[in-house]
Specification:
single chain; mainly alpha; two-stranded antiparallel ribbon; 5 helices; 2 strands; membrane; endoplasmic reticulum; transmembrane helix; SND2/TMEM208; transmembrane
Length: 175
Amino acid sequence: MAPPPKGKAPTRGAKQIFTENRATVNFYRNISLVTSLIYHSTTLALHFRDITSGTILLNLIVSILYIGSHQVMYFLSYPQYAENGQMIDPGLDLNMEGGIGEHIKDIVILTAITHLLTLFSDYFWLLLLLLPARIFWLVWVNFLGPWFFEKAPEDTEQDEKKRKKMERKMKRFPQ
């Protein structure tokens, strides 16, 4: 098979996207489960007396992040089938560079790292504050920043003609 042209990325088929999506969802699910298992077994064995209501609340938040991320990845990558059982759409490609799947995978990775580091100190829970900061950054860079700093459209020749016509009209019929 000949190598693809240098400037163009090779295309991937629906079956390959489907297979890679399933592998990705399973991989990040396993990261969540193993991290939670390590955290909870270590906490119960070594730090049982140090469990507070704040720790329970933060573990609930982490669990919601794990489950929510997994469900979003599963929903985005869910394929659509025709009535005869043939796959119509493999779902969104979770491994696409710069896509939403990449951001969801980042959430799982940050949550897992935070969950494991809190075994050493409760101050590592503050790493979860990076999530809203990252969301704000993405919203600013992609939506708000360009909207605030967009240059005003320049007057075109047609706009100039319309403006002159309105001025003449205003001179003839003052209000």
